């Protein structure tokens, strides 16, 4: 079985368990040293995958990342998008806008016209 990235190994374990009668082997481009199962072959192994932006981590980490970016002051959606892309997070602008709206509904962010602010943060009132 070939996968691009093996992080925790949960997905690989699921597939390998289902293919067990065929005695599959796992190969990937990048793997965490903590992956279980460990791949039989990997082009790049490391203790963590900080240099890789894993798709499932982008939205999972978006709340904290947006809050960190807004801690310095208010930003527009376009500015947030630009800074997220600088960090390697490529989120579709419509999905980003929807996610920011969701954070605002949970009172994690406030929208002031075109600007997003942290509640009580710089210029956040």
Topology as H/E string? EHEEHEHHEE
The poorly predicted ranges are none
> Radius of gyration from the CA trace?
19 Å
Largest sheet: 3 strands, parallel
Q: Tell me, rounded to a whole number, the average pLDDT.
A: 83
Beta-strand proportion: 15-25%
Note the gap between the termini.
Answer: 53 Å
Which structural category fits the helices and strands?
A: alpha/beta
Number of strands: 6
Shape: elongated
Counted by DSSP, the helix tally is 4
Instruction: Tell me roughly what share of residues is in helical segments.
Output: 25-40%
Strand order of the largest sheet: 1-2-3
How would you portray this structure in words?
- The protein is built from four helices and six strands.
- The model has no long low-confidence stretch (mean pLDDT 83).
- The chain has helices at 10-18, 55-70, 77-86, 93-105, and strands spanning 2-6, 27-32, 41-46, 75-76, 110-112, 115-117.
- The chain has a three-stranded parallel beta sheet, covered by helices on one side. Strands 4-6-5 form a three-stranded antiparallel beta sheet.
- The protein is α/β, with parallel strands linked by helices and 125 residues long.
């Amino acid at each position: 079985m070939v996968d691009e990235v093996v992080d925790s190994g949960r997905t690989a374990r699921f597939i390998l368990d289902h293919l067990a009668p065929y005695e599959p082997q796992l190969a990937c481009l990048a793997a965490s040293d903590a992956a279980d199962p460990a791949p039989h072959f990997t082009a790049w192994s490391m203790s963590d995958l900080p240099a890789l932006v894993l798709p499932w981590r982008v939205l999972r980490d978006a709340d904290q990342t947006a809050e960190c970016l807004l801690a310095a002051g208010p930003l527009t959606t376009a500015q947030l998008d630009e800074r997220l892309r600088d960090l390697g997070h490529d989120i579709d602008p419509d999905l980003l806008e929807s996610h920011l709206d969701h954070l605002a509904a949970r009172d994690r962010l406030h929208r002031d016209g075109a600007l997003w602010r942290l509640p009580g943060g710089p210029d956040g009132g």
